[in-house]
Backbone:
């Protein structure tokens, strides 16, 4: 498992070639690319605990441990970094407010267990049933509503410090269009740095206390992360767990997309590891939730690094995972990230939460969903309005939040609506993707 064949001369990648999962460059290049993967994942991974109030060092630790577990479970055949999943932000935020951190961690554990179970099913049955239960119009709606449901959270942070928030948001957008390749892919990370520096300068110029560095000075350089544990005993836990279940659908879509992307660039046999990838992410998420970390997912940022370098070696991910673990053992690193001011978070989340929603819409576009059909129209329309408005239903101490209601609405409207429309032959059902007329996508010539 730990033997990688040296690719070519070990220093360069020939034009048109890629370094496969079972290959590696020389160890100097491998370590350098591994550190580049750490930079790529860092901006997104630290944001989730900062936004949800979880310990940054703990989340970083379990992202590194989760990555190593992923490599072991997939038999070192599938390159991937497991970082914090944005899909958890909304349910963690709501669950923490309603029932406390312990209940939120219980929800993360529940997602991990269910995702691993789905992985075992996929490993033995295949992916066909997932496509039938969650066709593109439903998958897109569920991913989109998770992002748009967070819009009020972004605004609440933005209005606390409007100037740093606006600077951060503008920087994120500018970096995404100004730079090519890797730098463009980490525009959110760069935007946070610009916003942070701008806030420091504003504080120096005005004398207003915007950032408090006392905790950074007091934190030791070396120490264990803070561990927290899930609470399955509280009555409120079981009502908030329901809010986490739609996240499973998002993680399935992200993992499947990751595997297919790697298979397209390296070897089609990588698709055989889909079930193992889901199991691995489920195990990593369960472990993280059991000790105070956020749930994990395969990272698109790192796919970008692989595409740019054409190095798909799993050896670089062992370097990245071990580096993340080492960084997590410095409480001072975590303290620095905890000083990020609300204005910077408001600016970056205005872009970030919207992008999560746009990913859902991209699923519709990529699969050419026919929105002239009423079933598809109402599947998307009702679920998104429920999420944005924050619909909820209370049954004694049991509460269903907007993410649950919106996801259930999308599934019920689609499947029941199609059944009725097809029985009545009204033509309101989903007729499949719109036929392509001329070239699709791309910029005009």
Residues:
């Amino acid at each position: 498992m730990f033997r990688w064949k040296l690719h070519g001369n070990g220093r360069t990648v020939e034009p048109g070639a890629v370094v496969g999962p079972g290959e590696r460059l020389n160890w100097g290049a491998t370590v350098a690319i591994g550190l580049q993967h750490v930079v790529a994942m860092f901006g997104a991974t630290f944001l989730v605990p900062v936004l949800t109030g979880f310990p940054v060092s703990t989340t970083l630790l379990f992202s590194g441990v989760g990555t190593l577990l992923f490599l072991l479970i997939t038999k070192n055949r599938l390159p991937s970094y497991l970082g914090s999943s944005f899909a958890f932000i909304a349910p963690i935020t709501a669950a923490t407010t309603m029932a406390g951190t312990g209940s939120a961690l219980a929800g993360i554990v529940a997602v991990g267990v269910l995702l691993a179970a789905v992985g075992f099913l996929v490993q033995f049955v295949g992916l066909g049933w997932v496509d039938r239960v969650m066709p593109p119009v439903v998958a897109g709606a569920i991913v989109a509503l998770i992002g748009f449901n967070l819009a009020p959270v972004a605004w609440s942070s933005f209005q606390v410090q409007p100037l740093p928030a606006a600077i951060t948001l503008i920087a994120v957008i500018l970096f995404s269009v100004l730079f090519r390749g890797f730098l463009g892919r980490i525009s959110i990370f760069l935007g946070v740095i610009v916003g942070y520096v701008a806030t420091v300068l504003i504080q120096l110029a005005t004398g207003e206390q915007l950032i408090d560095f006392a905790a950074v000075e007091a934190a030791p350089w070396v120490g264990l992360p803070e561990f927290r544990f899930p609470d399955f005993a509280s009555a409120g836990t079981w009502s908030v767990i329901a809010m986490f279940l739609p996240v499973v659908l998002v993680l399935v879509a992200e993992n499947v997309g990751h595997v297919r992307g790697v298979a397209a660039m390296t070897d089609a046999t990588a698709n055989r590891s889909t079930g193992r990838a889901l199991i691995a992410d489920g195990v990593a998420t369960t472990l993280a939730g059991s000790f105070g970390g956020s749930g994990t997912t395969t990272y698109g940022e790192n796919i970008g690094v692989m595409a740019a370098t054409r190095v798909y070696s799993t050896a670089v991910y062992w370097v990245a995972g071990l580096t993340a673990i080492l960084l997590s053992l410095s409480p001072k690193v975590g303290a620095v990230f905890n000083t990020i001011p609300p204005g910077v978070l408001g600016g970056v989340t205005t872009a970030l939460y919207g992008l999560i929603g746009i990913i859902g819409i991209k699923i519709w576009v990529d699969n050419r969903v026919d929105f002239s059909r009423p079933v598809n129209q109402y599947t998307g329309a009702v679920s998104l309005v429920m999420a944005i408005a924050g619909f909820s239903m209370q049954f004694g101490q049991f509460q269903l939040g907007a993410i649950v209601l919106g996801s259930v609405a999308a599934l019920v409207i689609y499947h029941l609506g199609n059944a009725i429309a097809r029985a009545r032959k009204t033509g309101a059902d989903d007729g499949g993707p719109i036929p392509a007329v001329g070239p699709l996508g791309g910029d005009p010539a």
About this structure: The longest helix spans residues 237-265. The longest strand covers residues 82-84.
